[in-house]
Every structure is written in structure tokens, then in C-alpha cells.
Amino acid sequence: MKNFIVRTITAVFFVAAIVTCFLRAEAMILLFALVTGLTVWEFSGLVNNRGSVTVNRMISTVAGVYFFFAMAGYNSGIVSAGVFIPYLITLIYLMVAELYLKQEDPVHDWAYTMLSQLYIALPFSLLSVLAFRSVGSDIVYTWHVSLSVFVFLWINDTGAYICGSLLGKHKLFPRISPGKSWEGSIGGGILVILSAWGLSQLCATGALGDCPLVLSPLEYMGLGLTVVIFGTWGDLIESLFKRTLGIKDSGNILPGHGGMLDRFDSSLLAIPAAVVYLYTLTMI
């Protein structure tokens, strides 16, 4: 009972922080820069516990946070593409440094260092691609799509848990996550699609304020389905990562919910997938 109360309190504060931060661009950027740094730091610490791996934890974390700020600045129109040069120089340094450090397994060091950027820093940085839109000659901030990705993930988790508990009989991926069922995943997906349709109606009526990116109900439902599929894969990927390392939780920074990777695992694949989906819509 005590653990349930702790989990509930943490979840309430977590959801409140995410929702409110999206109401202002500055708050979103600052919060997710912090999230990026904490997640890269956590990831680097976990892989460094493997016998022959030595990732430069500090430089990898600073690089990830810098890349997040650079993407936010570039997509908001504040800075030019030149802002990415220091980040590229840092990546080159992390590669070349292994020539002189004489580590036991430099290939694994390279792989895990770059994975921290590809798996964590890049997906979070793509939030600014969803949040900033070009309207004529101006670039405006919109929270609708970027926040909806997280809302869809939360709805999917809730629906999958309820449907899985009541109807779950067929395991979705027993080798990696024995608790997930096809019935739960389908139930969560249906609930998200219905929620996406409802969101499209709210945007169409202006109930959520001005929305620079106008999507039809079918397009919103497609976005919801994309988030469900790739969010589920993101969850499974993190489960495989933890199984490989032989750990239950990625950390303990969030009481009752584990670490940063445990909390944001689904979004690490759902955010890039949402970006690809929306850009695909503009090309067809």
C-alpha cells in the first residue's frame, strides 16, 4: 500500500511537470534539457558498470545537453546551423581520445558513447522539431503535438494495464517483457485512437487555443497509432537493455518508478517516429 501511494504521488507530480512545462517554450526547453542530462548520465553510469566499458560520463552528458539546446535554438530560429559545430567537435574528440587512453575495449567505449547520443540526446532534441512550426515568415511555438505524444503514451499505458489485467491471455513478447499481452496492447491502442479523434475535435473547435499545425481527425488518429506502436517498441528496447545488464530498474531517482530511462523509455522511440510521421504527411 505504501509503495502504491509513493508511485501515485510521483506520477501526479511527473504528469503535472510535463503538462505545465509545455505551456511555455522556455519551460519546456529547460525541463527537457535537465531530463536529457539526467538520462544520459544515468545511461552512462549503467554501461560503465560493465567490465570493460569506460564511457566519459561527464563529456557525454554535457554533449547531450548542448545538442538539446542547439536543436531548440536552431528550430526556434534563434541561432544558425553553426551552433552544431561544437557538438560535432566533441563527438570527434570522443572518438579520437580512445587512441590515447589505452582502454581495454575501445570499440565498446565508442559504441556506448555514441549510443547515449543516438538513443537519448537525439530523441529528446527532436521535441523542438515538433514544438516549433513555420507560419509564413515567422516561427511560432505550439505545444499541441509535442504534448499529445506524451498524453498518448500515458493513455496507452493506462489502457494496456487495464485491458491486460482483465483480458490478457496471449503474451506480446514473453522473452523480454512477460507482463505485456496482445489484449492489453490492442486495448491501449484503441483507447489512444479514440483519444486522438477527440483531440482533433478540440483543436478544430479552438478549445485548445490556436494550433499552427492543423491535422485532420484521420491524421491525428494516425499519429496516435504511430505513438502506440513505436512507444511499445521503445518500452521493449529498454527492457532488453536492462535484461542485458541484469538489472530491474535503471535507477531510483523517481520514487516508485525507477530511473529516468524507466520513465521515458517509450518516448525515446515515439518522439522520432512522430517527427517522421508528420514530415511524411507534408510530402504526400
Please estimate the helix content. over 70%
What class do helices, strands and sheet pairing give? mainly alpha
Biggest sheet features: 2 strands, antiparallel
Q: What's the tally of helices?
A: 12
What would you report as the Rg, rounded to the nearest angstrom? Answer: 20 Å
The shape is globular
Biggest sheet strand line-up: 1-2
Q: Please, what is the average pLDDT?
A: 91
Secondary structure layout:
Layout: H1 2-21, H2 25-48, H3 57-75, H4 85-96, H5 98-101, H6 106-125, H7 127-131, E1 132-135, E2 138-141, H8 144-167, E3 171-173, E4 177-181, H9 182-205, H10 217-245, H11 260-264, H12 267-283
Antiparallel strand pairs: 1-2, 3-4
Architecture overview:
This protein is mainly alpha-helical and 284 residues long. It is globular, with a radius of gyration of 20 Å. Strands 1-2 form a two-stranded antiparallel ribbon. Strands 3-4 form a two-stranded antiparallel ribbon. Helix 2 runs antiparallel to helix 3.
Overview features:
284 residues; mainly alpha; two-stranded antiparallel ribbon; two-stranded antiparallel sheet; 12 helices; 4 strands; globular
Summarize the structure.
The protein is mainly α and 284 residues long. The chain has 12 helices and 4 strands, in the order αααααααββαββαααα.
